[in-house]
Amino acid sequence: MGKMTILAMSLFLFTMSFLSSCILEEANGGILVAYRGEQCSLMAQLLQNGTYGNPVIGEPIQFYEETRNILLGTCLTDSQGYATLEWQIPADHPLGPTLVNATYRGNETLFLAPTCQWLDISILMRTKLDVNTSETVLAPNDLLSISAELHSQQGEPLASELLELRHQNITIASTMTNTHGAASFQLHVNTSWAVYGENLLTLSHPQNLDSYTSQSEESVTVIIEKITSWFDYNLAHSDQVFLGDILNLHIRLNSTEGCLSQMEVGIYLDGAFQTNIQTNASGSLELGVRIDEQFAIGYHDLVIRYTGSERYAACEETIGFSTFSPVFTSLDYSGLPIIESNFTLRIDAQDRFGRSIPNLVMQIYDQTTDLQ
Known about the structure:
By secondary structure, the protein is mainly beta. It is built from 1 helix and 28 strands. It has one helix spanning 2-9; strands at 15-21, 25-26, 32-35, 39-48, 60-65, 70-76, 82-88, 96-104, 115-124, 127-133, 137-138, 143-152, 162-167, 170-176, 182-188, 197-205, 216-224, 229-235, 240-242, 246-255, 258-259, 264-269, 272-278, 284-290, 298-306, 315-324, 328-333, 345-350. Strands 2-3-9-8-5-6 form a 6-stranded mixed beta sheet, with no helix packed on it. Strands 11-17-16-13-14 form a 5-stranded mixed beta sheet, with no helix packed on it. A hairpin with a 4-residue loop joins strand 5 (60-65) and strand 6. The longest helix has 8 residues, at 2-9. The radius of gyration is 45 Å and the shape is rod-shaped.
C-alpha cells in the first residue's frame, strides 16, 4: 500500500517557471516599463522540482497579455529551460499597467504538472522634445531664452508635463508645459550656475508614471564670454613733452555695447600705481599729468588699465612719451690760461629743475680762433 502511494505521488513532478525580460526597463520603485510601438523580450524558465531544479527542454510555453486575454505567442524551452518571445507592442496599445503571464499546460507523459507565472508591466509612450534658443553666445547679466515643445511619438502635444533645465547635473530651472505642450525658460546669465566658455545645458522631461510618458531630453551649448572693452584717447601734446609742462589726455572707455560709465580706471607711471579715476556718464575721463621733478629726462610709459567686471573684459593701453628739457650750463675756472700749458675748466649741465644731467657730450670752441 505504501508503494502504491509513492507511485501515485510520482506521477506529477512539480515544476516552476518565472517570467523576466531582457529589454524591459526598471523605473523608480522597481516598476518594469515597456513602450508602445517597440519590441521587448519576454522570457520564462521551466524547471523540475523547484527553483533550483533541472531545466525542462522542448516544452511549449504560452505567453498571454492577461489584461486583454490575448495570446501573444508560444515558444519551446531551450537546453536551459528558457522560452523567449519577442513581443512587438502595438502603437495603439492602452497605456498603463498590463499583466502578462507565461503558462505551461503540463505533460502527463513526462509527469510534469501545469504551472503559471505573472509579471506586471507598465506600458508608456515615448516622448520627444524640440528645443530652440535665440542666442547661444551670451555675457553675464544677459537674458537666456529657451523655448521647448513636448510631443508624444504620434506628434500630439503633451500638456501639464514637467520640464527641467540642468547644468552639470544641477537643476537650475523647471516649469510645466501648457495646453499646446510648450514651455519657455528665461534666465539671467551669471556665474552662480554658468562658467565662462562652453556650458552644456540639458532640457529634460522626466519619466512620468502617472501620465505614462517616457523620459526625453535635448541639449544645447551656450557660450558665456565677457564683452570686449578698449580705450580711445587723445593726446593734447606730441609724444615729446618738456619738463614743467602738463600732459593732458582725454580718455574714453568703450565696449562693443557702447561707452562704459562709472568704471574705475587705474593710472600707472613706469610700472608704479598712481591713482584710480572713475569714468563719467559718457565713459570718459580727463587726465592731466604734470611733468614735475618725479620725471627724469627720457622715455616714460603711462599705462591706463581697466581690470574688467563680471560682464566686461579687462583692457589696458600704454602711452609712451619722452621728456625733454633745455640745458643750463655754468662755467668755472681758476687763474689765467697760459700758452702751451694746461688750463682746467669746470662745466656743469643742469635741466630745468636744476638737476645735473649725466653722460652729456659737450663740445668746447675757442671762438677767437674758431678752434674746437
